[in-house]
Amino acid sequence: MKILNVTSITELRGGDAQMYTVYKLLKEKSDIKQYILCPNNSILSSICKNDKADYFTYRKNSLKLLNLTFAIINICNKENINILHIHDSSALNAALIALKLLNKSITLILSRKRNNRIKDKFLNRYKYSHPRIKNIICVSKAVESIFDKIIKDKSRLITIYDSIDVEKFSLKTNHSLLHKEFSLSPETLIIGNIAGLTNQKDIYTFIDTAKTIKAKSGSLTVKFVVIGDGPLKNDLIDYANANDLKKDIYFTGFRNTIDLLPEFNVFLLTSVTEGLPLTIYEAFASKVPVVSTMAGGIPEVVVDGKTGFLAPIKDSKTLSEKVLEILKNSNISESVKSNAFELVKKNHNLNTMQKNYYAFYKSIT
């Protein structure tokens, strides 16, 4: 079996990161040969080069659709590809064009990570219901649901949950790196988020929640950290300053989060849309209690009161109440951390994902 994974993304988003994780997990399988096709200026291409992975690149310029289409055709013919696994919408456009000139025995698979609404219009119904697409792999049931009005044949939809290296995260310890960097006192509690600074992640609600927590924290010393970068960074800093939080919220930019997560006392996620972010699993594995909005697939793993706490989207009042409950009640905090860790260890570790993807690929040959 020969698989060509195709992405048109230049940044390293969660979908491509997980695609590469699956690529590495299945390399040991002698009956599967995998390749990756990505833009020549992408972060993924640099990773593949450093790891000496089996990969190809194409030029993502003004002729990007044609370049990707011809690259797919050439690689499929040269390597006798059996499965064309597409990892984003733009790459799907090129693949559907390429398939008109390729062997009809090639199986087309699409992965979908985001739960952003798909407009119910003819071109989208044609594209996602195309008869050449055998399956659409979703990272949560919430992602499956966005196809309700787009795809009639729901049997083509399948959910395979993402996974992480649970042991790697669980073995990390707190070295107080943030406390040292920002000169925080040892008793300072940290409420953190890891997110791109975009509208989807709604850091404005994170800031609103921080303001309420600060006002109601009493004798507790609490600070807030946002790890990540994005186009809204300057606006968010201005918003935090306008809410008198200049000395309370730290925007760190991109960081190696695995070393910083153990320092969080609460992971606070305020997104308005999500497929099901890896950061939830990472917090679970790091034994950090999670408080989150009910965005997308998050309630599929964050069970309110058991593996974390949930609040309606943009509800900073409830979010702040849940965070304070964790900070002030160690029994609740320990219970949530323990339940969440058992969940991620059982259902979202790399061995589970390897078995799931291997079984899936074998089922379609």
Major beta sheet summary: 7 strands, parallel
Query: Regions with pLDDT < 50 over 5+ consecutive residues?
Result: none
Structural class: alpha/beta
Give the topology string: H per helix, E per strand.
Answer: EHEHEHEHEHEHEHHEHEHEEHEEHHH
Explain this structure to me?
The chain has 365 residues and is of the alpha/beta class. The chain has 2 domains: 2-163 and 349-363, Glycogen Phosphorylase B (Rossmann fold, 3-Layer(aba) Sandwich), CATH 3.40.50; 166-347, 3-Layer(aba) Sandwich (Rossmann fold). The protein is 40% helix and 17% strand. The chain is built from 14 helices and 13 strands. It has a 7-stranded parallel sheet, with helices on both faces. Helix 3 (64-79) packs across helix 4 and helix 9 crosses helix 12. It is elongated. The mean pLDDT is 95.
Helices and strands in order:
Blueprint: E1 2-6, H1 14-25, E2 33-39, H2 43-51, E3 55-58, H3 64-79, E4 83-86, H4 89-98, E5 107-112, H5 122-128, E6 133-138, H6 141-145, E7 157-159, H7 166-170, H8 177-181, E8 189-194, H9 203-216, E9 222-227, H10 233-242, E10 249-253, E11 266-269, H11 278-285, E12 290-293, E13 309-311, H12 316-328, H13 330-347, H14 350-363
Parallel strand pairs: 1-2, 1-4, 2-3, 4-5, 5-6, 6-7, 8-9, 8-11, 9-10, 11-12, 12-13
Helix pairs in contact: 3-4, 9-12
